[in-house]
Write a structure and sequence with these properties.
mainly alpha
């Protein structure tokens, strides 16, 4: 099965929402911050949780494809696959620490260790490697168990926030900043994404287009859509209205339900050719292809209208900025292509470096 454009569209949606959400948060005047809160209530699951979820889907498809090359085509070694995987994770972690340090020097030093999404993604990659060999059910159970443990630990450690004792240190390590994307909470989204990635990968063996579509409908679209609706309903009703409270247990089930449902809708639209993926998704493709670049680069927009815009000017400024930024990414793609994509550069660099290390070991 060819790579689903839905994956790129989904990641692009996540990055677009992050981009728009941050601009609203940074630029709107204090008295209108309820607008940012309201929009986050509705669309928050499409942000960091969705990005980590689709990253899990994407990395699994890439990993399984490389294993196929190792076991069947035999044009690649397992050691190179493993080494390039960890190099990519460590490179991303180094970038995340540099990013955190820059933010900390601008605001407060305690933010050096903060669970912004880059650091969460890097640690998710590192933690995921030994779990790839587990069954899909085992990974789902681990993800759910982690959620319950994270809720208990937060209740246990939160009273010690900002205290110089062992409990305060543990709180800082696991949950600083809780409003961001703590690993202990958001790793499960990545883990669930790997399960979906494996389900999609299992369809690759079928070369018959019609049969593929039937299997996609039977094994993925119908069951996943039903599961997603069930998760959304459970999240809403479990402890109403805490599903609107980010990182609450209700919100976690609600968020993964939203992520699954959005992905399934995009797959349906693509597979049944309801829209043309060659043209309709280009804006989201740029935000997907340059996802890490966008994440780092958009921070330079922070001070342009900092806390200056009202309920009318905020939407004009945000929409125009999004359009200009989209055109900017388009031009970058035409001029530099993958060379301007941090995601692509990390992948290519880690793969080439792993090859050089492997060759050096062989000579020795």
């Amino acid at each position: 099965m060819e790579r689903l454009k839905s994956i790129d569209i989904f990641r692009g949606l996540c990055m677009s929402w992050m981009f728009l959400g941050h601009l609203i948060e940074w630029w709107i005047r204090e008295e209108y911050l309820w607008v940012r809160t309201f929009t986050f209530f509705i669309f928050d699951p499409i942000g960091a949780s969705g990005f980590l979820f689709i990253s899990g889907v994407s990395i699994t498809l890439s990993y399984r494809n490389r294993l196929y090359r190792v076991e069947e085509i035999k044009d690649l070694s397992y050691s190179r696959v493993k080494m390039s995987y960890f190099l990519r994770a460590f490179f991303l972690l180094a970038i995340a620490i540099i990013y955190n340090t820059a933010i900390a020097l601008s605001y407060q030093l305690s933010w050096i260790w903060t669970w912004f999404v880059l650091m969460t993604a890097a640690f998710s990659l590192l933690l995921m490697w030994p779990l790839f060999n587990l069954s899909k059910i085992s990974r789902i159970l681990i993800g759910v168990i982690i959620w319950f443990i994270s809720q208990y630990l937060y209740l246990l450690l939160s009273p010690y926030q900002n205290q110089l004792n062992i409990q305060g240190i543990f709180y800082h390590f696991f949950y600083n900043d809780y409003s961001q994307d703590p690993l202990l909470i958001f790793f499960s989204f990545f883990l669930f994404g790997t399960v979906v990635g494996d389900i999609l990968n299992n369809l690759n063996n079928n070369r018959n287009p019609e049969l593929k579509r039937k299997q996609l409908k039977k094994k993925i679209i119908i069951p996943t859509s039903l599961i997603s609706l069930g998760l959304i309903l459970f999240g809403v009703l479990f402890n109403f209205p805490s599903f609107l409270s980010r990182s609450s247990l209700s919100w976690l089930f609600y968020a993964i339900g939203i992520d699954l449902l959005v992905l399934m809708i995009l797959i349906i639209l693509e597979e049944y050719k309801i829209f043309s993926t060659k043209k309709s998704y280009r804006v989201f493709f740029y935000f997907s292809y340059y996802s890490f670049t966008v994440y780092l680069g958009h921070n330079f927009l922070y001070f342009i209208f900092y806390k200056k815009l009202d309920l009318v000017t905020i939407w004009i400024a945000v929409v125009l900025t999004f359009l200009v930024f989209s055109l900017f990414l388009r031009q970058i793609y035409k001029m530099w292509g993958w060379k301007a994509s941090l995601k692509a550069v990390l992948g290519k660099t880690s793969f080439k470096l792993a090859y050089k290390i492997e060759e050096k070991k062989r000579r020795e």
